[in-house]
Write a structure and sequence with these properties.
Pfam families: Rieske (PF00355)
CATH topology: Rieske Iron-sulfur Protein
Shape: globular
Radius of gyration: 13 Å
Protein name: Nitrite reductase (NAD(P)H) small subunit
Helix content: under 10%
Number of strands: 10
Distance between the termini: 23 Å
Structural class: mainly beta
InterPro entries: Rieske-like_NirD, Rieske_2Fe-2S, Rieske_2Fe-2S_sf
CATH superfamily: Rieske [2Fe-2S] iron-sulphur domain
Strand content: 35-45%
Keywords: 2Fe-2S, Iron, Iron-sulfur, Metal-binding, Nitrate assimilation, Oxidoreductase
GO molecular function: 2 iron, 2 sulfur cluster binding; metal ion binding; nitrite reductase [NAD(P)H] activity
Number of domains: 1
Length: 108
């Protein structure tokens, strides 16, 4: 597995996100209140809304367009909504955040 270092954990605000631009498309990298880091394709499975601009709460993000809730750990929409944003492996080592650009979940 090949990891791409994207910066410091402190570069991502708690309950916030930053966007990493890749040739495959934008990836939203989220930081939760408990300092866990998750990465999703930056497009809601509903209408493609920018998840990076959504509200992070717990381990979910709410899409800013139509209020769909997406699980940060998997990219899956919360029922009754259906779909998946696509999840990327993320890790924090020594305060540095890295991503693997191979999605773990196929896009819906």
């Amino acid at each position: 597995m090949s990891w791409l270092e994207i910066g410091s954990l402190d570069d991502i605000p708690r309950l916030g996100a930053r966007v990493v631009r890749t040739p495959q498309g934008d990836i939203a990298v989220f930081r939760t209140l408990d300092d866990q880091v998750f990465a999703l394709r930056d497009a809601c499975p509903h209408k493609g809304g920018p998840l990076s601009q959504g509200i992070v709460h717990g381990h979910r993000v709410t899409c800013p367009l139509h209020n769909w809730k997406i699980e940060l750990a998997s990219g899956a929409a919360v029922a009754p909504d259906e779909g998946c944003a696509g999840h990327y492996p993320a890790r924090v080592e020594n305060g540095r955040v890295s991503l693997n650009l191979a999605p773990e979940t196929a896009n819906a």
